[in-house]
Design brief:
single chain, Glucose Oxidase, domain 1, eight-stranded mixed sheet
């Protein structure tokens, strides 16, 4: 394929899967591709949205991109990058960056950014502690929202106390407060995030200029060995494994155990009761993490579904009883990073360069834990709470017949956020007027149609990118977080003239491993992972950490050197290659493959 012919499909060439047109049209108009979008480059954000999106779940994309755009463009005023546009087709979310290219505008934005960023960097620890207080207050505010209910008659106390506002009004108030709080959470999420990346990127750029031969992985290892809240849930599972052994109740924990039966058995004996008390200590708040990355309602939290921690306990218990170390290799990572930092410092020629180097790496170490730590409060704890609050509306609508006789409360997530508000108003009208609501006749066929569309979309692959490949991709966040570089895009476009059994990506964590590929395309499939497998997925996240004891290496479609998967792999010392683009399509489940996490290559050795 010549360079001129290289390119991904244009957005206009991607057709809606037949039979799902109505479900596609139900997404907001501003998320639909239009002809003008053919002139822009887009990539499939499988890092955050690896599965087709339910209509309500699109709020997780919308609220995030609204807040990210405002922070980048108007609040922190990043010099060369504003926000990202997003579109959805066949349930798949594509994004495209909005870049600043005018030199005068860049210069204006640099002046604004410098002042604003310096304020944060100079007061980082104090501001971060204030941020945690804001997040805890926001979580408490959401928890305090009452469950939506409608009495048969308004209690007399309502008007006797001078209120005289009917209960139906509270439905709208509660829902709007939930949505407002969710949007506010995303503003908190992005308050520090890009600044955290920015500090690392500045250090990264300095190293690339000062040490032309240095690898991305060597630079990333200089900030390894972090402590962040997102790792705490896994630490709690390890603690529970140790306590099970100490209390002599470890025999209760086996693979594929009946969790309810185990909890009931433990409650019958004193040692078991002690362990259950330990479980409660861990659950609040540390099990408020979802099995996914916090963008899908059905990725339930460990708090709601104990399957993930209970799947990890047998492995950890076996290692504890065998005297093996189950801790993250944090001390080793810190020793390696300090040696690397010192070795490269010695290569600098001037005291001025050494002073700059010292300043940049010190700042990176100060701010980088936030890049992972914030996820616990935002994508997990708050988002899980938010989805559970929406379930309460699903329960209310179900009770009033909105989803038909065979419906379930989860059907509420097939309504877009604006449609859910209209259904709530329909119920308010019905209750107040005393006439039947329209929803029970209107929603069941639409919900059925959208259920079918989600299932059908999941059967169809989607291109990793759309539009013509740009000459250069200079947005460092897109490079390092998503792994979108010109070189990687060229490898994704390989027409087969190269080695069909080799994939290239980012070298996330060094080590060479051969093993059986376990291709996992959704959270629901992680139970298929066997001891020693090589995980092949679109993306993983820190809450899969308890399963890292089982796998020998990891490969992903999406992600750069600073993606969450790359960071977690380094923190656990797990060989990994990220950003291959097409691993889940090219590698077949059960094939034997070789992962070289130092070179960033994956080789297919033999068929299943």
């Amino acid at each position: 394929m010549t360079d001129a012919a290289k390119g991904f499909p244009l957005p206009s060439s991607i057709k809606v899967v037949p039979g799902t047109e109505a479900a596609q049209a139900a997404y907001p108009y501003y998320t639909q591709f239009v002809p003008e979008d053919d002139g822009k480059f887009w990539f499939y954000n499988s890092m955050h949205f690896p599965e087709p999106m339910h209509h309500f779940d699109m709020i997780t994309a919308e609220a995030a991109y609204v807040a990210m755009g405002a922070m980048n463009t108007r609040m922190h005023v990043l010099p060369t990058a504003k926000g990202v546009d997003h579109r959805i087709i066949n349930g798949r979310v594509y994004i495209g960056g909005v870049v600043v290219t005018d030199p005068d505008e860049i210069a204006e934005r640099v002046a604004e950014f410098t002042s604003r960023a310096n304020f944060y960097y100079e007061n980082w620890e104090q501001l971060y502690e204030q941020w945690k207080d804001k997040m805890r207050a926001l979580i408490a505010e959401a928890q305090a929202l009452p469950s939506p209910t409608l009495p048969a008659y308004e209690p007399e106390a309502t008007f006797r106390e001078g209120n005289a506002v009917a209960a139906s009004h509270d439905l709208l108030k509660i829902y709007q407060q939930q949505v407002e709080g969710y949007h506010r959470m995303w503003h908190h999420h992005f308050e520090f995030l890009l600044l955290g990346y920015g500090a690392y990127m500045t250090f990264f750029g300095f190293c690339k200029q000062a040490f032309p031969e240095i690898s991305d992985q060597a630079i990333s290892r200089m900030v390894a060995g972090m402590e962040a809240e997102i790792f705490r849930p896994d630490e709690e599972v390890k603690r529970l494994a140790r306590r099970a052994v100490e209390l002599g109740v470890d025999h209760h924990f086996t693979d594929n155990v009946d969790i309810d039966a185990v909890l009931a058995d433990l409650d019958k004996v004193a040692a078991g009761k002690d362990w259950l008390n330990e479980l409660e200590v861990s659950r609040n708040p540390w099990f408020n993490v979802s099995s996914g990355d916090g963008f899908y309602h059905y990725h339930r939290s460990w708090q709601d579904d104990l399957s993930m921690p209970f799947a990890a306990l047998p492995g950890y218990i076996a290692k504890v009883k065998a005297g093996e170390n189950i801790e993250r290799p944090t001390e080793q990572l810190i020793a390696e990073r300090e040696a690397l930092v010192a070795d490269y410092r010695e290569l600098l020629d001037t005291e001025e360069d050494k002073a700059t180097y010292d300043q940049l790496i010190t700042l990176a170490h100060r701010v980088f834990p936030y890049v992972e730590g914030h996820k616990f409060y935002c994508e997990h704890w708050y988002t899980n709470l938010f989805f559970n609050k929406i379930r309460e509306f699903g329960r209310l609508l179900l009770a009033h017949g909105f989803f038909g006789p065979d419906g379930v409360e989860e059907d509420v997530f097939h309504l877009a956020q604006y449609e859910l508000e209209s259904a709530i108003v329909d119920l308010m009208l019905s209750w107040g007027v005393g006439a039947p609501p329209r929803g029970p006749a209107y929603w069941p066929p639409i919900v059925a149609q959208r259920k079918a569309a989600i299932e059908e979309w999941g059967k169809h692959p989607t291109p990793p990118a759309l539009g013509n490949v740009p000459d250069a991709i200079d947005d460092p966040a897109i490079n390092m977080l998503w792994g979108i570089t010109r070189e990687n895009l060229d490898s994704w476009l390989d027409d087969g003239s190269g080695n069909p059994n080799e994939l290239k990506g980012f070298a996330a964590c060094s080590g060479v491993v051969e093993g059986i590929a376990r291709v996992v395309k959704s959270v629901a499939e992680i139970s298929r992972i066997q001891q020693g497998d090589i995980l092949v997925c679109q993306v993983t996240n820190p809450t899969w950490s308890p399963l890292f004891q089982k796998i020998s290496a990891a490969v992903s479609d999406i992600g750069g050197s600073m993606s969450h998967m790359a960071i977690v792999a380094r923190e656990y010392g797990l060989p990994a290659v990220v950003g291959t683009g097409v691993a889940t399509q090219r590698i077949k489940d059960g094939q034997r493959i070789r992962v070289d996490g130092g070179k960033g290559t994956v080789s297919i050795l033999e068929d299943a």
